[in-house]
Amino acid sequence: MASPNTAGSKSKRADEVARLRVLAHDLSNSLEAILQATYLLQQAKIEGDSQRWVKLIDASSQEAARINGEIRNALRALSGE
């Protein structure tokens, strides 16, 4: 049988993982809005430096979404899914 401290620390860890999963999900939603807005900007006829900035935003937000996906996978593994 687990000691009360062990059970309490497991519960605290589960709560922390659950909170991190909520934050990662919220971050996914924010990143999706950026990705969608970037897509729409790419459909417009933007030229010069503005086009370069749109490409930078797109590449950076895609990389952030990829990293967030890795974080979410790690959190799923920690929570036993």
Count of individual beta strands = 0
> How many structural domains in the coordinates?
1
Q: What's the number of helices?
A: 2
Biggest sheet details: none
Distance between the termini: 23 Å
Unreliable stretches (pLDDT < 50, length at least 5) are none
Brief synopsis:
The chain is mainly alpha-helical and 81 residues long.
Report on the architecture of this protein.
The chain has helices at 4-43, 49-78. The protein is built from 2 helices and no strands. The two termini are 23 Å apart. It has one domain. The chain is an all-alpha fold and 81 residues long.
Labels describing this entry:
81 residues; mainly alpha; 0% strand
Helix and strand layout, with pairings?
Elements: H1 4-43, H2 49-78
Helix pairs in contact: 1-2
